[in-house]
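Reviewer comment 2.1 asked that we show a complete input and output for one of the modelled complexes. We chose the adenosine-5'-diphosphate case, as it is the one discussed in the main text.
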Amino acid sequence: KHTPRVFSGVKPSGGLQLGNYLGAIKRFVDMQGQDYEAVYCVVDLHAITVWQDPKELKDATREVTAGYLAAGIDPSKSVLFNQSQVPAHTELAWLFNCVARVGWMNRMTQFKDKAGKNAEKVSLGLYAYPALMAADILLYHATHVPVGEDQKQHVELTRDIAAKFNHDYGAEDFFPLPEPIIEGPATRVMNLRDGSKKMSKSGESDMERINMTDDADTIAKKFKKARTDPDPLPDTLEGLKGRPEARNLVDIYAGLSETSPDAVISEFAGAGWGTFKPALADLAVAKLGPISEEMARLMNDKAEIDRVLAQGAERAEAIALPILDRTYDIMGF
Ligand code: ADP
Ligand code: NA
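Response of the prediction step:
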C-alpha cells in the first residue's frame, strides 16, 4: 500500500490573497510535522495558462515561496519547490493528456467559469490544466491533497486519471487514488464585493480581496466596505442561512481565530457591523501583519529564496524521477 504523502500547490499568478492563506497555506502548516511527508509546490506552469508578464513571473514565484516560508512551512520538514524546475511534471502531464478523456475535461466547472463565453479564445493549457494538476499530485504518489473547495473537482479528476491508468495498463495500485482534504471553517472564502464569487488573486477590483501584503489601513478599509445585509449578527448559526456575505465574514473570523463559526456567533450574537467589522479587521491585521512583514524581509534576499527552491527541486526530483521512469516502463517506452 502507499505510504501517506501530502501534495499541494499555489499559483504565482498575482499576490497571495486571504483565501489562499485560510483555505490552503495555513492548513499546510497545520499538517506539517504529522506522520507523513509533505510536498508543497509553487505551480508556475499553471499560472501561464492565462497571460503572465514575463518580467513579473520569477518574482511572483519568489513571493509565493516567501508566503509559504513566512506562514511557517519549514523546508527541512517539507519539500518546498517550484514546478518548472522539475521537468518531470510536464512529462507526466503529457502522458496523462493521453489518459484523460475530452468528456471529463468538458465537465470541469472551473474551466467553464474561467473561459466564460470566450471558450474558443482561451489557451489549450487552461483546458488541459487538470491533467497537469493530476501529474503534479501523482508524480509523488501523493495520497492526500489539502485544497480549498474550488479544487475538489480537479482532485476527483486526478483519481479518475489514476484509476484509468492503473486499469488500462494492468498496473493495479501503481498510482494511489488521492483524497482531497477540505477542512476548516474557511475552505471557500468569498469575494468581499460579490458574495456569489470566491475570493481570487486575479479579480477585477482590489477591494474584492484581502491581499497577504495589505497594510493595516487597507485591511480595515476593505472590511469596512465589504458588502453585507443591514441586519445584526444572529444568536445562532442557523440565523445566517440565506445571508452569504454575513456568513463569509463569520467564516473568515473563525478561520483566523482558529475557532468555529458557532463560537464566533456566540461571541458576537446581536452585534452590528459597526462592531464586528472593526473586530475582524483587527484580528486580520494581528494574524497577517507578522506574515507580511516576514514576506517583505524574505523578498529582500532573493538569492536565499532561490537557494531554498533549488534545494527543494533536488529533493522533489529524488521522489519524482523513479516514479516517472516506472510510468514510462509500464506504458512500454
Ligand atoms: P487563486 O484562485 O487565488 O489563483 P490558486 O488557484 O493558486 O488560487 O489556489 C491555491 C490554493 O488556494 C488552492 O488550494 C485553492 O483551493 C485555495 N484557494 C484559492 N482561493 C480560495 C478561496 N477563496 N477560499 C479558500 N481557498 C482558496
Ligand atoms: Na484557484
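The chain has a mean pLDDT of 97. We note this here for comparison with the apo prediction described in Section 3.2.
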